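Slide 14.
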Amino acid sequence: MTNDFYCDEVLSGRTSVERVLETDEVLAFHHTRPAYPIHIVVIPKRHIPSLIDITKADSALMLEMLDIISQIAAQVTRDQGACRVVTNLGSYQESKHLHWHIISGNPLR
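Slide 15: predicted structure.
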């Protein structure tokens, strides 16, 4: 197994997730181990290791991801009053698959 929870578990179907929004290229779902009351993850269905690995060939996919992130963040902000959109790099990135967290509320832990 690689250090890619999203490919190894979520996209393979081994771990089921509660989907928020899905297209042919992007999946948004509720985090399997949320750290916040609202904790949604947005991933590309194609493996890209991290934000710094994006190339010009990924432009259309990134625009689609940003559109989905924007839609979900707008809804969370309407419902909760605020949210954060976060991506991690390097040692902060537990799973080596590009992903964004849309979070709201105080940490649960």
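Speaker note: Residues 51 and 102 are 16 Å apart (CA to CA).
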